[in-house]
Design a protein that fits this description.
single chain, 6-stranded mixed β-sheet
Length: about 290
């Protein structure tokens, strides 16, 4: 099976749900008209990133949301799946940096960001709660996984997604451009390219990396979204610092071919990993 995926590299307006929703609706129509079957938006695509005290004002309850209903209806009308980022409010009034996979009029999966950067220029842990679940999930186009930005900097998340069966990793980011590194790009862009290629090649899966652009609170977001194949090759690369809507093909047979040539998942010693992690955990928490 081949899937045409659209990478929607947008510039969300901070705290303006209606404006951002209109952008999602318009780009989804464009992507569907271009034959895309899945469109992926960046982290917090419906709200912007540096929300801080605005978090409660823009939070969405996925069980009753007119915003999500409009996206679900459009996806069903145009027969296209959407992956969007938003602030989720839970029934106990905790807020999460979440991403949802919308398909055929239903919310197929929600991922709550597990690792919240709260250091340096980041302050997420003050305003949202951390998720505590990592699961791959089935879609009509195969098994996928969602990770959000800092999640990907922790290799354990990639390991778990791959061994839970993900063949496509949807990687949504609001990654600032940082660190000048000559000759041609910022250090943060080199870092993201290393992470996405390493993830794809180490676990023989596709990585759909979608980063945002724009400026918030003096921070510039660099874009550079890309589609990486299971051999670590870049198939599509979006613009740097500018909005873009680009397309690429995901071919399930390429996952099969990569995992046949490199049967690393087959040979992985999960029992050994579990045993040694248990030993390390017990030692760290003085349980022995």
């Amino acid at each position: 099976m081949k899937i045409k995926v659209a990478l929607a590299q947008i510039k969300p307006a901070l705290g303006d749900l209606q404006r951002n929703l209109d952008v999602h609706l318009e780009l989804t129509r464009q992507a569907a008209d271009a034959g895309a079957q899945v469109i992926v938006f960046p982290e917090l695509s419906l709200t912007g990133y540096y929300l801080e005290d605005l978090v409660p004002d823009v939070a969405i309850d996925p069980t009753r949301s007119d915003t999500l209903d409009q996206l679900l209806n459009l996806g069903q009308q145009y027969d296209i799946d959407l992956v969007i980022g938003f602030i989720e409010v839970a029934s106990d009034y905790r807020f999460f940096n979440s991403a949802a996979y919308l398909s055929q009029g239903q919310i197929a999966h929600i991922h709550r960001k597990v690792y919240l950067p709260t250091y340096g220029m980041f302050d997420e842990g003050r305003f949202v709660a951390a998720g505590d679940v990592l699961r791959a999930f089935d879609t009509r186009y195969g098994r996928m996984g969602i990770l959000i930005c800092e999640d990907l900097w922790h290799p354990s998340t990639l390991y778990l997604m791959a061994h839970d069966g993900a063949q496509v990793l949807l990687a949504m980011s609001a990654g600032p451009g940082r660190g000048l590194r000559l000759p041609d790009k910022l250090g943060s862009m080199y870092a993201w390219e290393a992470i996405t290629r390493s993830a794809a090649q180490s676990y023989m899966l596709y990585v759909v990396y979608v980063n945002r652009v724009g400026v918030e609170d003096g921070v510039i977001f660099s874009g550079g979204s890309e589609l990486i194949d299971p051999f670590g090759r870049c198939l599509v690369k979006a613009k740097t610092f500018d909005e873009d809507l680009c397309y690429g093909l995901i071919d399930a047979l390429e996952v099969r071919r990569a995992r046949t040539i490199y049967p690393l998942l087959r040979d992985e010693r999960l029992d050994l990993t579990l045993r040694e992690l248990t030993r390390i955990y017990n030692k760290r928490h003085q349980l022995e």
